[in-house]
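Progress against Task 2.4 (sequence-to-structure conversion) is shown through the following example record, which the project officer requested during the mid-term review.
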Amino acid sequence: MKAKTLFKILPGIMLFIFMFSACELVDPTNVTNPQITDDALRENATGGTASLITGLRRQFSVATNSSHIIDVTSDNYFNTASFISNNLDRPSSVTPFDLTLPTVYHSYQTLNALVDFGLSAIIPNDKQTTNDQKGETYFYKGMALVILAENFSSFPTAELGPLVTSREAAAQAVEAFKTAFSTTTNASMKINCKLGLTRAYRLAGDKANADAEAKAALALPSAANYVFFAQYDAAQLTNTPYGRITTLTDLQPLPRLDFLDPKFTTNATSIPALKSEEAHLIIAEVALVNNDLAAARTSMVSAVTVARATVTTFRDTDARTNRPNDAALKVKAGPNAPALSGLIQKRGGTGGTLVTVYPVSGTSVTAADINALTTANALYKMLYLLRQEIFFLEGRRMSDLGIRLPVSIRQIQTNTNVADGGPGTVTVVPAYLPSAGNDLDRFTIDAATATVTIATDMNQLIADNINSVSPFLAR
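Structure tokens generated for the chain above:
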């Protein structure tokens, strides 16, 4: 090769070599920094608990976003056209292969695993950890376990671990809440822990402790009208139920519950996770089990008083296609139930229609309605109607119906302790529930009488089978 030719191409060769070397220099996969190895981070986790708490709060909000999916599996909502599984409207059809299940199951298991990692690897090595941070971490452990226990019959609580029953998980949640309460100094977190304990003891079937903790929760300062929320924002983590129900109108409520819809009015609206009303309702349930009807009435009236505290409005553009959309319509909760007015709000129209909204708790029940009841059966029916309305769109109704979902297929395929067809891998649908298709959601409209009739009065069905429904009675 001539010298002139070599001189001409040499700069290009040098540039290529430089660029190749530069790529090697900036490739992060080839960088080794002994200060940021996994072991180094675990041993020098100073300040890491603050990030852990941020992650726990976010993951709890991610998990709580699945509340609308759980409500579809109950009689609260009907799935009209969303991307979530149509099988959810037919609970007996749900299998571990259902692609919607991981949204619920894995999000709470992720929260549980994140807590365990924090307690084992971050908090012990972070000298800056405060008691409030440690208490909050245990609080989220309790919440993860109690919500898993409400929605699944059996599941592992440790990676690749053995199955535990929902009651065993509730007992674990009790211990987590107790530790959280004794550790934290934050007044609001102490209320959270007491309300969580109340919920966990109820799920475990322990009426004495559920009653005691409910009363202890309400006795704390600022607990009379208290709510703990999962938080959202418009930019980073939006309220998913708002999008599906308000923007896309993919999900429609049971006509009996139309007045409660929509519960959330923006994609940043917080979702209630714990609130004072539940303490009153649990005290009422214990009183009913003890056959103290007067005390049960008093506690239910207290729940109604708290529930009506927050009301706002929303301009709704949903025209309710093929659904009741006339405020003049009356609704019967079942074929033999009375026809009630005021349960359906008119929507749609040019620019939408202004409707009443209950962002925390709403109910159609009045104190007079409760005080007029004289039998245990009627009061049980009222109690579960109150639970249905007050916890609307919070993912609680499916559990009250006794339905439990199976763990996801990934759990079955990767955990040798979980056998396909065994405990925890099949949907639990109690025999007292309607068995045909989507009977939980069926209704008819009689134009002549302007009446909507729900196919099955589920709260009456619950009352008639209370020995199999109430955690304080069922075994």
